[in-house]
UniProtKB/TrEMBL annotation:
The chain crosses the membrane at residues 20-38, 50-70, 90-111, 131-151, 163-181, 193-214. It is a multi-pass membrane protein. This is Ferredoxin reductase family protein. Pfam families: Ferric_reduct, NAD_binding_1. Its cofactor is FAD. It is found in: Membrane. The keyword Cytoplasm does not apply. Residues 219-319 form the FAD-binding FR-type domain. Its main location: membrane. InterPro entries: FAD-bd_FR_type, Fe3_Rdtase_TM_dom, FNR_nucleotide-bd, MRET, OxRdtase_FAD/NAD-bd, Riboflavin_synthase-like_b-brl. It comes from the Bacteria.
Length: 446
């Protein structure tokens, strides 16, 4: 029987602690916001009160969103980007509807008070600068929400989508200014002001620290540069990055970095690419498929190009193991963290690798994978062909046929979101416990 070592038990406990902290933070702040609303000076009418109530929750949702995009290492390494991206997406749509409803009820309340129509009240309030800034911020939220709808995401490149979402920083500045002048509930008393602006100071401080200060310090220390560029297939390339003291990054197989190549790409172009080989303290290797302009341009990266990396992030690591045996599942370029995991000496026991690709020729790093599988005594299945009634490797019957004892194994999976959802559905049907499921999907994130 497998007995987890102390560090692994600690890390699993830390994952539960991370979830408890997230939910605890949300619930405690919701309670405080309700108290702020109750204790504040009431509005002139019911419609205005509803608008103020929604506005308070909108401010809280925005502060939570700032923390979610701050890339807090504690949560990134314990919960994983995939699950945090889900939080980010649902928080974003919550903000969108609050942005719609908050000004609507405020305008209705003032229209009733001024005895004019709803539409006549819009220019009346819009003539006040703090309100106008809030309206502009609301418009920017609308733009980001529209471009995040699935149909729009399919038509936008990652680079274009990411550029649009940089507007979040403009929106935040406008929203904070709006709150300074219009926040009746949290400016009503000293304790309320201390709480509210302390919350925002914490959120913005976390954002600046983890997205700007820490990466600047780390990159100045490690002096990352491209040392080799190796084409893998017609549309995939590996980039080797060297630097000083890379072992101090404490990167693990299965994790990823956010990568920038200043001078070769625009400063704002950043992509999350996983390590495609176990870090050895001398180089970091990423492997990317030419999907967008940035990934497609990696093949032309000159050796010596400066590299700017944020990380390491991700919970797809062996420290979360709970069983002696494992299944590694990859879809397309999702093979990169899976290949690195297969190289991890901490991945022991019986190992099965399932690699889903359109054709064997599309299977990136297949030669390395076969060699590693042979060295580790792992069983490798390359699953090709279109999905059809006859070819459903990730259906319950298909997955059980490939790995009959899957419910007794840890399952690591990385691939497209649709494939990840299908695998997760099957794992639930096969009664694989949640603690044994370690999944990261390709989802857009800022």
């Amino acid at each position: 029987m497998y007995t987890a070592t102390s560090p692994r038990v600690s890390r699993m406990s830390s994952a539960r602690t991370a979830y408890l902290l997230l939910w605890g933070f949300l619930l405690v702040n919701l309670v405080v916001v309700e108290l702020l609303f109750v204790r504040a000076v009431p509005s002139h009418n019911t419609l205005g009160s509803i608008g103020r109530f929604l506005g308070l929750h909108l401010g809280l949702a925005m502060a939570l969103q700032v923390l979610l995009i701050a890339r807090l290492p504690f949560f990134e390494r314990r919960i994983g980007m995939d699950k945090l991206t889900n939080w980010h997406r649902w928080t974003g749509f919550t903000i969108f509807w609050l942005v719609v409803l908050h000004p609507t009820f405020v305008l209705l309340g003032f229209a009733e008070l001024d005895q004019i129509s709803f539409f006549a009240e819009i220019p009346n309030l819009g003539g006040q600068m703090p309100v106008l800034l809030g309206m502009i911020a609301a418009g920017l939220v609308g733009v980001m929400a529209v471009t995040s709808v699935r149909a729009a995401r399919k038509r936008l490149s990652y680079e274009a989508w990411h550029a649009v979402h940089l507007l979040v920083y403009v929106m935040l500045v406008l929203a904070v200014i709006h709150q300074v002048y219009e926040g009746r509930s949290f400016n009503a008393s000293v304790p309320a002001s201390v709480y509210w602006w302390g919350l925002w100071a914490f959120a913005i401080g976390a954002l600046l620290t983890n997205r700007l200060l820490v990466p600047l310090v780390r990159n100045a220390r490690h002096q990352l540069r491209v040392v080799a560029v190796v084409p893998e297939t017609n549309d995939a390339v590996s980039v080797y990055v060297g630097g000083r003291g890379l072992e101090r990054l404490r990167a693990r197989p299965g994790q990823f970095f956010w990568w920038r190549f200043p001078g070769h790409n625009s400063w704002w172009q950043v992509n999350p690419w996983s390590l495609s080989a176990a870090p050895d303290g001398r180089t970091l290797r990423l492997t990317a498929k030419a999907i967008g302009a940035t990934s497609g341009g990696l093949r032309q990266l000159p050796v010596g190009t400066r590299c700017y990396a944020e990380g390491p992030y991700g919970a797809l690591t062996t420290v979360r193991r709970t069983k002696p045996d494992a299944v590694l599942i990859a879809g397309g370029i999702g093979i990169t963290p899976i290949r690195a995991l297969l190289e991890d000496p901490n991945l022991t026991g019986d190992i099965v690798v399932l690699y889903r690709a359109r054709t064997a020729g599309d299977a990136v790093l297949l030669g390395e994978l076969r060699q590693l599988a042979q060295q580790r005594g792992a069983r490798l299945h390359v699953l090709t062909g279109r999905t059809s009634r006859e070819n459903q490797p990730f259906s319950p019957a298909g997955l059980r046929g490939l790995v009959p004892d899957i419910a007794e194994r840890d399952v690591y999976m990385c691939g497209p979101a649709a494939m990840a959802d299908a695998v997760l559905h099957t794992l639930r049907a096969l009664q694989v416990p949640p603690r044994q499921r370690h999944i990261e999907a390709f989802r857009m994130a800022v």
